């Protein structure tokens, strides 16, 4: 794992943005894996800024999002298709046909899940997958206990995840109980992973992701086994890692594990 310490959320977003921009500039048909939640909002804002400056074109980019709520369609302001349109896609020149999200209102969710897997493989797999980190260690919507062999699937959301995400809804009762998520095996097939983590409340989760024994009980621990993970985290999120390993582990980009 390579660890990059950012001063704050803004710097974390800028660093992630420059990595994605560089990749898009250097590849004809880049395939990006995207995440939702609060963490990548700054990254998307920075990508739009770079696009407006003319630094980067998204014409050849294909994207796959990690997850979508079951039951929310693209008009639903709490759905992830809506989020992605608002936060990124409506503001850049990516062709619509190159945007992929699981379909939370499909009549056949299981078929949609296996089609999604095929599409990812057809695109040649994801070059860079952006990930956020759930407080309980979830990646995508893969909750604790999810098999490391899982492919894109329908998940039961943990009560803790529904509570954490209730801030986007008018009440917790409106938070869907199910979602579709890329599986852990699917995520691990990405060629490179960028894990973005910000804020003190994620410090324990980030520490565990990097240090706890690899276990399905804390899904993000699987990232210890991926050959190309870059963690971009701000000082607050890294506070527990820094307490244990000191600045050297970060400054010299040593393997923490
Ligand atoms: O960035 P946030 O809002 O803290 O969420 C962390 C993770 O939780 C999810 O929003 C799912 O609950 C993921 O999509 C995200 O990566």
From TrEMBL:
Gene Ontology molecular function, alphabetical: glucosamine-6-phosphate deaminase activity
Pfam family membership, one: Glucosamine_iso
Signal sequence segment: none
Entry's EC annotation: 3.5.99.6
Entry keyword set: Carbohydrate metabolism, Hydrolase
Pathway annotation: Amino-sugar metabolism; N-acetylneuraminate degradation; D-fructose 6-phosphate from N-acetylneuraminate: step 5/5
CDD domains: GlcN6P_deaminase
Residue stretches making up the Glucosamine/galactosamine-6-phosphate isomerase domain: 11-225
Active site per UniProt: 67, 136, 138, 143
Keyword Hydrolase in annotation: yes
Domain of life, source organism: Bacteria
Catalyzed reaction equations: alpha-D-glucosamine 6-phosphate + H2O = beta-D-fructose 6-phosphate + NH4(+)
Protein task: Catalyzes the reversible isomerization-deamination of glucosamine 6-phosphate (GlcN6P) to form fructose 6-phosphate (Fru6P) and ammonium ion.
Family: Belongs to the glucosamine/galactosamine-6-phosphate isomerase family. NagB subfamily.
PANTHER family for the chain: GLUCOSAMINE-6-PHOSPHATE ISOMERASE
Name of this chain's protein: Glucosamine-6-phosphate deaminase
Organism from which the protein derives: Planococcus wigleyi
